[in-house]
Structure formats: C-alpha cells, structure tokens
Amino acid sequence: MADGEDWNKSQHFEWQLENLRGAIRLAGQTIKSLEIINGGGAVGILTFYGNVLSKGSPSIPFNKPALLLALWCFGLGVGTAVLCSIFSYGSQRVVATNAKGEMVLFSLALLAGLISVALFISGAVSAGLSFG
Question: For residues 34-48, b (16+ Cβ closer than 10 Å) or e, as one string?
Fold first, then answer.
C-alpha cells in the first residue's frame, strides 16, 4: 500500500512541476506579446508620421497631439512590459532561492502587465480618435 501512495505522490509532484513549467512559459509568451503589440503600435505611428512628413501634406487629416499621445502610450506600454519581465524574473529567482519577497515581485509583475495592456488600449483609442 505504501508503494502505491509513493507512486501517487510522485505522479502528483510531476504533474505540479509540469503545471508550473507551463505557467512560466505562458507568462513569458504573454510578456513577449505585450512588448510586440505595443512596439508594433509605436512602429505603425512612426511609419505613418514619417510618411506624412516626407510628403509634406497629409492626404488624411489627423490630430497631431492625439497621435503623439498614442505614441507615448505605446512607448510606455513597451517599457512597462519590460518591467513586467524584470519583476517576473525576480519573482522566479526569489522562489528558486527560497528568499522572501515573492508575492511583492509577483504583484509588481502583474501590475506592470496590466498597465501595459491599459496603455496599449489607450494608445489604440487615441490613435483611432486622431483620425476621427
């Protein structure tokens, strides 16, 4: 009977370990996605604005301050996604070394990720309104 219990504990441990690995991979992919979508928004605005400057007069009327606000939002979104990555790394490092502060770093990583999403949404809305 003891062998069966050990096997179940071992199987449960392996399941937990694989679940943790999957969660870490998912978090990494999410952070990369935040960096890419915010960076893509910034590149799109810079490309549009560079095209407008090279042609002199825009064929599409736009609100310059709203477009610049969107650029700032996307840039800050990339920055907060990078902070999210740094805090996530710190959180995993704390867990690996059994030090204190895991929840603080995890909370900061989560907050930075949420702020990055909010900045992307704000940038997208501001960019959309700049043409409205």
Answer: bbebbeebbeebeeb
Closest by alpha carbon to 74, among 35, 28, 113? 35
pLDDT beneath 70, residues of the chain: 1-7
Instruction: Report pLDDT digits (tens) over 5-35.
Output: 666 778 888 888 888 888 889 989 999 999 9
Query: Ramachandran region of residue 58, left (φ > 0), alpha (ψ -120 to 50) or beta?
Result: beta
> Do 48 and 79 contact (CB within 8 A), yes or no?
no
One-letter amino acid identity for 72? W
Distance between CA atoms of 108 and 118, rounded to whole angstroms? 15
Tell me which residue has tokens 């909370």.
107
Which residue shows structure tokens 């090279």? Answer: 54
Q: Where are the domains of the chain?
A: 29-129
Whose tokens are 């062998």? That residue is 3
Distance between CA 124 and CA 75 in Å, rounded?
12
